[in-house]
Each structure stands twice: as structure tokens, then as C-alpha cells.
Amino acid sequence: MGTLGGKECFAVEVEGPGTASFSNLRMNIQNIDRTLFNLAGRALQVCDWYRTHQFCGRCGQATKESERDRSTICSGCKLNFYPRLSPSIIVLVHKGDEVLLGRNHMFPEGLFSTLAGFVEPGESIEETVIREVKEEVGVNVGNLNYRGSQPWPFPNSLMLGFHAEYQSGDIVLQEDEIAEADWFPCTDLPMIPGKFAISRWLIDEYLSQRGIPV
User: Rounded distance, CA 43 to CA 11, Å?
Assistant: First the structure.
């Protein structure tokens, strides 16, 4: 997996827990520092990729590990396969002292977050932000401001974070995905994700810009 603190790091899959105690990475986000989380996330992604790319998707023959880079090569047609990475956007839509937050159907009751979605083939990141917001909550946004990124290995995303300014439109939910969405005053937010997640970084940063303690 690379080095950490001058020490070589490896990912090893085991048949069973044995005498070790295993814990779900996603359920322990708040209990692990960011560097170790990124390393563990890389291990999850690489192991999953290697496990699911033992055979070529074009001709069906077995693959083997490349000696030059992190890829597998088909033993027949020589097609290369690299670890899958799915770019996605996550965006805080704002309107003065209000922010637009939504609750996905998979979220616990009462938990709201920023909006997110995957990049489609042929799209720029900026086009994805505009499309996803329109699809999920029906409003139009502009003045996009890129704020940072976070690896998110569940299973293989790279989250690209934005602030976006509300321009027009009323909230209309994409009901198969969004359970609730509303405008919230910056001084009276609902339950939001913990400080480890990029969604929280986006919210906290905007609050700071408005002079509101976080």
C-alpha cells in the first residue's frame, strides 16, 4: 500500500478472524485518524479490485499482476485493468444565511447532509454539480466554488467538494433518492454528519465565512 512513517504497509486478506478482532471501517470513522483511515480505505479498495478482476472482461482469460504498476494484465489479449475509482461531487447549496440540506432514504431519521452524486461519462465536474442539484432537489445553482476532496472507499469514490450559490427554483424532491430537503438557517441546523466527513467540512467552512462559530 506504500509507506507510512517510513514503514512499508501491506494489505492482507484472511479466511477468518482467527484470534484477531475485526471492525467495520465505516462504522469507526470517528475513532480513527485521517491518515490511517486513508490507508485502510486504500487497502479495502485495492483488495476489492484485485478480487473482482481475476479474469478479463473482454476475452474471459485469467489476469496476472503487472510488474510495472498497480494493474492486472489479461494473459490472452493483454488488456490492462486498474483499480476502479468513481469520481463524485458533494455540494453545499447556500442562500445568504440559509443552507439547503437533504436526507437520503438510507440516512437515519433526522440526519441531514449536503447533496452528492456521481459524475457521468462526458461530464465536467462543474456540470455534474449543476445537474445533480437540479435532479435531486429541483433548484438551479451557480457561482461554484471548489473547496477540497476526500477519498471515500465505500466502495471506491473520490468526493469532490463544492459550495454553490442558489439561483432559482423551488424544492422538488427526487423521491426515489431524497426523503426530505429544506432550507435551514445557519444558526439553527438539524443533526448533521460528524467532523470527519467532507460534508461537515463544507458546512463548517460556510458557517465560518458567515461569522458563525462552529
Answer: 6
191 and 124 share one domain: yes
Mean pLDDT (10-residue bins), the chain, 214 residues: 92 80 82 89 92 95 94 96 95 97 94 97 97 98 97 93 98 96 97 94 97 92
Longest dimension (CA), the chain: 61
The H or E element that residue 63 is part of is strand 63-65
Judged on CB neighbours under 10 Å (0-12, 13-18, 19+), 52 is: exposed
What's the CATH number where 105 sits? Answer: 3.90.79.10
pTM of the model: 0.89
Whole-angstrom Cα distance, residue 185 to residue 80?
Answer: 50
Residue with cell 498497480: 70
Among candidates 7, 4, 70, which has minimal Cα distance to 34?
4
- Minimal CA–CA distance to 161: which of 134, 187, 183, 128? 128
Report residue 104: phi and psi, to 5°: -70, 150
